[in-house]
Amino acid sequence: MKDVIIYTVDYCPYCKKAEVLLNEKDIPYKKIDITENEEEYRKKLGEYYDIEGKVTVPQIIIAGRRIGGFDVLDKLERSGELDKMLED
Q: What is the per-residue pLDDT for 87?
């Protein structure tokens, strides 16, 4: 299974929904909570992943590729594409 990283803040309901979805599917992931240095991390994420405008959370990374937030993750799950993306 490919590596999954999720950037979160502790007060975000969409971050929690993303974690629930990943947990329910038994997808291992590395959680990076940016709450304490949120502004700095958002800036770094924007620069690293070339995100235009405000950087939202969660930011979900699969195999080094940013897929976006919970809405995209949920859409990938419902279409069956998430499982394909995670295959080695």
A: 87
4-86 has which CATH code? 3.40.30.10
- How, if at all, do strands 59-62 and 65-68 pair? antiparallel
**pTM to 2 decimals?**
0.92
What would the two tokens of residue 17 be?
A: 């929904």
Contacts of 18 (CB under 8 A, 6+ apart): 6, 8, 58, 60, 69, 70, 73
Are residues 86 and 80 in contact, defined by beta-carbon separation less than 8 angstroms? Answer: no
pLDDT digit string, tens, across residues 54-71: 899 999 999 999 999 999
| Residues 62, 3 contacting (CB under 8 angstroms) | yes
- 3-state percent helix, strand, coil for the chain, nearest multiple of 5: 50, 20, 35
The helix (run of H) or strand (run of E) holding residue 50 is none
